[in-house]
From TrEMBL:
Residues 15-177 form the Glycosyl hydrolases family 2 sugar binding domain. InterPro entries: Beta-gal/glucu_dom_sf, Galactose-bd-like_sf, GH, Glyco_hydro_2, Glyco_hydro_2_cat, Glyco_hydro_2_CS, Glyco_hydro_2_N, Ig-like_fold. Pfam families: Glyco_hydro_2 (PF00703), Glyco_hydro_2_C (PF02836), Glyco_hydro_2_N (PF02837). Residues 179-270 form the Glycoside hydrolase family 2 immunoglobulin-like beta-sandwich domain. It comes from Microbacterium yannicii. Residues 272-587 form the Glycoside hydrolase family 2 catalytic domain. Its EC number is 3.2.1.31. This is Beta-glucuronidase.
Amino acid sequence: MLKPTPTPTRELVNLDGVWRFGIDSRLGEQPWAGPLESPLEAAVPASYNDLFTDAEIRDHVGWVYYQREVRVPRGWSDERILLRFDAATHAARVYVDDELVGEHIGGYTPFDIDLTERVQAGGAFRLTVAVSGELTNETIPPGKIEVGMTGKRTQTYFHDFYNYAGLARSVWLYSVPATRIDDVTVVTGFEGTTGQVEYRVEVIGDADVRVRLTDAAGAVVAEGSGAEGTLSVADVVLWKPGSAYLYQLTVEAVRGDEVLDSYPVAVGVRTVEVRGHEFLINGEPFYFTGFGKHEDAAVRGKGHDDAYMVHDFQLMEWSGANSFRTSHYPYAEEVLDFADRHGVVVIDETAAVGLNMGVVGGMSGTPPFPTFSEQYAGAATHAAHAQHLRELIGRDKNHPSVVMWCIANEPASNEDGAREYFEPLVDLARELDPTRPLTYSLVMFATFKNDQIVDLFDVVSMNRYYGWYIATGDLKTAEMYLQGDIQGWVERTGKPIMMTEYGADTQPGLHSVWDQAWTEEYQADLLEMYHRVFDRFPQFVGEQVWNFADFATSNGIHRVDGNKKGVFTRDRKPKSAAFALRRRWRGLDGRKPGSDA
């Protein structure tokens, strides 16, 4: 799906701002049939949960309603008129005046609705959007809804971050020509100093296609025609981690000399490959340093914020990080665009978090019932997961910063049924994008002895908490556990291995001369121990600390004001561990410590 972009043939209107707002339990039977009977207003983009002081709104389980008036530009009379939601968490129903015009399920991928036959250029309409934050065993991520003794519906979910809901990303009204470019796919490569840009264009309507590739200065370096082809780029400048270079592919739908539609695609020429136990970018070994992150900030929740985005990237650069994982859902497209422009490497992850009943069983890892069953992750869950994969890869396939797809976080890959669940998804992901490696993040319970799916994937990504959940406060024992764990994966797989989560909860300002959990010193010492072990294995290709910053979680008694594993506080103040990471990562330039690569 092409992101709305102003071009010579396309225009867009941003609908962000303050919308009327209400929750279903306080509105009439058909809230969309007229002005919302509510005194409340909500910001878009933002999660609604923390905007209000009313606990009933924050904990609401059900539908909420956003509403505003939209005026269509008068010059759009000969255009197709589309409405675009960058995300609605986790499901949406969209009404124009009194009519339902579209629905979408999935909280982190965009969707379009064609309004051409329902609205008029120069006219106005009432736009009402119903959004549900409910999670069930038929959604990704999954959850369940229960009715308590008071009759109140409550949401249970099996992931450790707060279930923020609402319109957390931008909303757009935009125009496109009737005959138009519908999709563009770009795959790049190079031989010596000559780059290749392979393209495939899908067009709606009767038109020819021509393409033009320009360099960063705007000079044309290659041209072509036809709906698919390959452009050669002499003296190519590669997109590299830490040194981004972007070309622009301008795709035009033409009829004779008339340009019917035009769309630009940023192109970074680079290759990604797994060879033996190495992860290669442009044929050179790459070592990941960075973080698992969250879209999370006070008040706005998961609402995208350009200021936070810029500052977070600055802090990652300051720390020496060269990468991050979009844990545990696709982030806003603006984040990937920024990563493209600044040479930051991204592991792009689906919203499939919580596919593990063993987590419910606590550290015993004993599930109350099988994860992969119709009781929990059954056929409907699998279908939702597959659709999410299609939407994620369709959205992000052209980003040079995205070097790997992570199709699940901490699934019950040690349980029976895991292979039957994941093998078709792996096949689908490889069909949708055969160019990028695949991974999944391994839960503690999934070991090199009992995991049932690792052979399907290209990179072993481990989430491990020795020294925190296991051997708490005993870093010598934790080091022995970690050493043996990694050695087991090395011997079993022969694949590249990286750590996608490791860390310790830390209360800023708490200090001790001993190995005391929750202190700033313990967090830094734990990370140092992990790094010491990583450096013993040439098969190790990366380290991404959990987490970049503290973040909100559900009301568990083991969390005080959220998850505190961030090396930065929720308001982005550094803990001692941030300085320790900076000392380790600065100057590595994507290479493993001690490596000559």
